[in-house]
Design brief:
With 164 residues, the chain is an all-alpha fold. It has 3 domains: 35-43 and 54-83; 85-121; 124-164. The chain is built from 6 helices and no strands. It starts with 12 loop residues before the first helix and ends with a helix.
């Protein structure tokens, strides 16, 4: 809210404010009406007191100005937070990640519980045979991979041959 001074340079703030205050009551203001960022009712003040002239006490005026600045700063911060789409998206993503981690932990715990129940219900000879098969598969990974690869290749050849 700066106005142009001599030589096209902006006038200082206190000069612009004094120009507003020097306007005749009831007449058109030179630089526009002085408005507050927060309406009087929203600021917690009595509306009738807001319609009265500004306080003559410089200390009280400075306090009102400071209070208005703080409210305006909070409003700007809130608007900036709403406008910061990237930060909001990151917050939402972190919330979703947290939920997914919780769900994964629950699923892991349920799977462990189910595995324990199955393990208890499985007869001992079957458990030993499964453990032996797992050990053999780990020892002979190359042969197991070759067998799986051969099976997949055979399936692909048969599927292609049937299409003809």
């Amino acid at each position: 809210m700066t106005t142009q001074g001599p030589a096209g340079r902006p006038r200082a703030r206190h000069q612009a404010a004094s120009a507003e205050n020097d306007a005749e009551p009831g007449g058109p203001p030179e630089a526009g009406p002085r408005e507050t960022a927060v309406p009087a009712a929203a600021a917690g003040r009595d509306v009738s007191a807001a319609a009265a002239a500004p306080p003559d006490d410089p200390q009280q005026l400075a306090q009102e100005i400071e209070q208005t600045r703080e409210q305006l700063g909070e409003t700007v911060e809130q608007l900036a937070a709403k406008a910061d789409v990237k930060a909001r998206a990151q917050d939402k993503a972190s919330q979703l990640t947290g939920r997914l981690k919780d769900k994964a932990g629950q699923a892991r715990q349920q799977a462990a519980t189910a595995a324990a129940k199955i393990s208890k219900a499985t007869p001992e000879p079957v458990r030993r045979a499964a453990a032996q098969a797992a050990v053999t598969a780990r020892q002979r990974r190359l042969m197991l991979a070759a067998a799986v690869g051969t099976g997949v290749l055979a399936w692909m050849v048969i599927a292609r041959w049937r299409r003809r």
